[in-house]
């Protein structure tokens, strides 16, 4: 009994979808004599030029069929997106198995997470709280900061339909509303997106626009004022050291110290303070300032004033498209002007989303009970106190920096007057 040298396939059109692939297969197959080729219907002699030509023609037909299927799939996806139909796949957290009806318990968790994140709580702090409470993803895994961020920034959260990473828009330019129940309002979702965009590095967005710079303190910190305190020791030639203070533990490990690093790493090594005393002094200044100013004046909320400009630009593009479809203008004129108008529309929409999100964040901040903030400020998280990330969010919103001036030689008593806050105007 001799072994068979050859290839058996279910069907010819399953062997190769592209002519180039079929040619390479035949070349490799016919390199040696005596090989057998067969499909479910019959045996074929690939050494014959006529059979090879027929196979090549079949590959071309198969490729055409694949392209037709792809076009039908894209058209189907586009049509479903314009109708606001839900997509398949695993159940998204916050919804039931039908992907339309809200799971009220999970939706409440997402809603609170979005509000906390917009108010300044870190994603890491939120997922750590969820882990302590035993909250899992729909697949039974622990939540991670990146998976929670991905969930919160999805347009599905506020009922918008997404396709290939972009919002699906109706003919009037407004986002298509999906058939599922939303977890957030569009303003709340934009507030989350505004925070996420603000924490990204120098990203390049569509159209080549550079995104917002990465904030200096985007990581999770262990102390209240790291990245905020700066050395105020005078240096030769005028001015002050201005190096960021670092932290270290005392020998007994009970307290932390803010200190200026040595000259070899950009500091002067001439300033140091007990961390708990500095934290308390600056916290009291901030809390007093919050109560005095009611934390934020409602008149300071940003307003977007270019709604009419956006409407006019969208109408220009619609009119240009109508004239092109009626063959009243040439292709070169249409595509040359359409690209510029689409760029203006994208820029205006991004600006609108950014300002709307910022206004929503300020609304959340104004609704904050300052007395409740003061009460929870000095409690531990186990006692219901504010998470460190929330406290640091207040610090970032109120302070550019705190300059720590030298206290002189020896062990002088702590003097809060040597702390110079630089307030955000």
Automatic annotation (TrEMBL):
InterPro entries, per database record: DNA_bind_recomb_sf, DNA_bind_recombinase_dom, SSR_resolvase
Keyword ATP-binding listed: no
Keyword annotations: Coiled coil
Recombinase domain sequence ranges: 92-202
Pfam families in the record: Recombinase
Record has DNA-binding as a keyword: no
Coiled coil: 303-358
Name used for this protein in its record: Integrase
A GO MF label: DNA strand exchange activity
């Amino acid at each position: 009994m001799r072994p068979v040298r050859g290839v058996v396939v279910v069907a010819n059109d399953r062997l190769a979808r592209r002519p180039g692939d079929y040619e390479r297969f035949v070349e490799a197959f016919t390199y040696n004599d005596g090989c057998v080729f067969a499909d479910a219907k019959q045996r074929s002699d690939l050494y014959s030029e006529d059979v090879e030509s027929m196979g090549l023609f079949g590959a071309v037909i198969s490729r055409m069929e694949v392209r037709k299927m792809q076009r039908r799939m894209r058209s189907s996806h586009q049509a479903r997106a314009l109708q606001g139909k839900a997509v398949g796949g695993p159940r998204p957290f916050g919804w039931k198995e039908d992907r339309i009806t809200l799971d009220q318990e999970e939706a409440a968790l997402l809603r609170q997470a979005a509000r906390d994140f917009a108010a300044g709580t870190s994603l890491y702090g939120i997922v750590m709280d969820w882990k302590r409470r035993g909250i899992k993803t729909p697949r039974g895994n622990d939540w991670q900061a990146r998976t929670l961020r991905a969930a919160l920034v999805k347009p599905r959260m506020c009922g918008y339909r997404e396709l290939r990473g972009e919002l699906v828009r109706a003919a009037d330019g407004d986002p298509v509303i999906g058939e599922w129940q939303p977890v957030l309002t569009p303003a709340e979702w934009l507030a989350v997106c505004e925070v996420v965009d603000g924490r990204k590095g120098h990203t390049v967005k569509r159209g080549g626009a550079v995104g917002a710079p990465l904030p200096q303190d985007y990581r999770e910190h262990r102390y209240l004022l790291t990245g905020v305190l700066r050395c105020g020791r005078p240096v030769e030639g005028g001015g002050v050291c201005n190096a960021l203070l670092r932290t270290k533990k005392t020998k007994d490990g009970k307290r932390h110290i803010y200190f200026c690093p040595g000259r070899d790493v950009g500091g002067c090594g001439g300033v140091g303070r007990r961390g708990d005393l500095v934290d308390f002094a600056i916290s009291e200044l901030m809390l007093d300032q919050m109560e005095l100013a009611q934390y934020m004046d409602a008149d300071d909320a940003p307003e977007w004033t270019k709604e009419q400009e956006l409407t006019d630009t969208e109408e220009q593009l619609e009119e240009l498209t109508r004239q092109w479809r009626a063959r009243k203008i040439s292709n070169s004129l249409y595509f040359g002007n359409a690209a510029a108008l689409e760029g203006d529309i994208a820029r205006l929409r991004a600006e609108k989303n950014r300002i709307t999100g910022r206004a929503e964040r300020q609304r959340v901040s104004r609704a904050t009970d300052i007395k409740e903030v003061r009460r929870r400020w000095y409690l531990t998280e186990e006692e219901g106190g504010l998470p460190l990330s929330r406290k640091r969010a207040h610090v970032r919103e109120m302070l550019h920096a705190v300059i720590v001036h030298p206290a002189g030689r020896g062990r002088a008593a702590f003097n809060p007057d040597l702390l110079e806050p630089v307030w955000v105007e």
